[in-house]
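Self-study notes.
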Amino acid sequence: MGLTLEIDENFHWIEQDWNKWDNDWLIFLTHSDFDGYFTAYRCGRIAKKLKLVFSKWYPEDIYHIYDLEHGLKLVDAMEYCNKNNEILILC
């Protein structure tokens, strides 16, 4: 991806040049994980990006394998929503 997402000790963004970020990525990274939804179109765009990230992720321990497995489940759900023109509701 070539972009660094950094926060300080108070969880504030550090010197981000948001113009370099893809809009779909920004929406995904800053979206609440328990409220709202993603459209079918946006699910398709985000799923492609997540698949790229996960294809380069080699978990080193059982906890990271758990995260990878659940991340891939999210990709599957997003691809399903995109294919079937449904929204992904976050709750």
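Second protein, same conventions, sequence then structure:
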Amino acid sequence: MLSGFVLTFPLLKNKVQLNLFSFYVKRIFRIYPAFFSAIIFCILLKYFLFDPFLILRFSPWINTFWKWNFFEISASELLNTFILIGRAFNTDLLDPVIGTLRKELIISFIFPFYLLVALRARTLINLIILFAFFFNGNNVSGMFYLGIILALNKNLILEIINKYDNYFISTFFFILGAILYKSRYSLNFLFLNYNYIISLMGSMIFLLLAMKNGLFKTILNSRIIMFFGKISYSLYLLHFPILLVVTSLFSDQVYFIFPISILATIILSYLSFKFIENPFVEIGKKIKVDKLDLFICKIFVFISNLDCKSIFNSNNSKVK
């Protein structure tokens, strides 16, 4: 949901056209360099620091990982792991977060077409499309599409929120959002197959609270939260392999596992952000594919009857 929102909002805010190939290049340079580095990091940790016998005393869950021998992994399995969007593969092989990253990447490539549909459709049609995603079990697309809808209707939503807002209402919704978000862990026996949708409602409440002025937004704008926001992708990629290795290294000193894991993850995530993520993101911004963008833009014009330069500056009140 957050990905759908943050990819859409800057385009609407700046009223710029979406250059398809430039967008893809930026996403590739945003996602793959840090991902490749994390995968290589996992392999090095597994072979030089990790001992599977030292974690046998811990949960069956953590003992399901890193049982492989690198030379026994098939070439196709390893290739699909690096490509991410290829054929289905064992996403738990190296780093279990790859499973959600794969979904994120696939949806990112579909995003421009979702956005084109959302821009052309009325609110009711967008809601029907949203419910169709969830009804058909396509929760990832549904969450992503919800983020797009929220970005398109941001001003209207904020107008409604600010009209009825006060400290007690904000506090109530903050508590409600926390309860709903955690429902898939604490109340999953009640919601059964709908627990992710209930949790999504909690996420949506947090996003709405973050958009409006108030204590929640002030906290999110603090330096410490902004810092974790910057390193969040690297932290997401690295936290599990670091936890696994630290568990192995300190298996006899359990109380050291979490503080050392947290500290090591923060430090290494910052280094990854500074020396891998950020430099490659800047490279992605500088790569020009204007001719390909123009060609695709003409196709969009043919399909949607929207001028390329005004696609995000239409008469649609949602966009203004």
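Instructor comment on the second fold: The first helix runs from residue 2 to 14.
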